[in-house]
Structure formats: C-alpha cells, structure tokens
Design goal:
With 99 residues, this protein is of the alpha+beta class. Helices cover 41% and strands 19% of the residues.
Length: 99
C-alpha cells in the first residue's frame, strides 16, 4: 500500500504522543535512542521490533552498541515520514516497555 508523506503539522502532532522521539533536522525521518540495562535486553528489544517490522513490511535503520539502540524511521518511497513510521515507532515503544 502506498504511503503518503505526512505534513509537518501531522508529524508534530504524532510526535507529541511518543516520548523521546524527534524529527530529524532535515524533516525526513523520526529518531530515538533507546537504552537498556544490558546487551541481552537491547537484543531482545531488537528481536521484538524486527518481528513488528516484518509484520508491517517496514524496516528501520538502526545501530546497536551494547545496551544502546539508535533508531531512525523514514519511508523512502514517500520521501519522508508517513503513518507507517509512527506505527513502527509505537510497536518499538511497546517492545521497549517490555524490557
């Protein structure tokens, strides 16, 4: 399904409902750094987030070192942030709360 790029106003509104997520300076992605107590917790988060990404057919750009996972979400085919990015961000928040 084709995703439409969200307006800056829609992005700002959606970000207000997610703790710690920010719009990148270029306006093309939303991002967050997650920190966990251990590497195993970070890896468990990434596993659950990967399963959500597969279900949504929308995959994050992310980077992991020990207990930290930096996430960047954008919809390349739309040239920016879409509702799909927020659906994945919400799934990631749920996965992080489980840790």
């Amino acid at each position: 399904m084709k995703q439409d790029k969200l307006s800056t106003e829609a992005i700002t509104s959606s970000l207000s409902m997610l703790e710690g997520w920010t719009l990148e300076d270029d306006g093309l992605a939303i991002a967050k750094s997650f920190r966990f107590k251990t590497f195993a917790s970070a890896f468990a988060f990434m596993t659950e987030a990967a399963q959500a990404a597969e279900r949504l057919n929308h995959h994050p750009e992310w980077f992991n070192v020990y207990n930290k996972v930096d996430v960047r979400l954008t919809t390349h085919s739309a040239g920016g942030v879409t509702a799909l990015d927020f659906r994945l961000a919400e799934a990631m928040e749920k996965a992080a709360r489980a840790r």
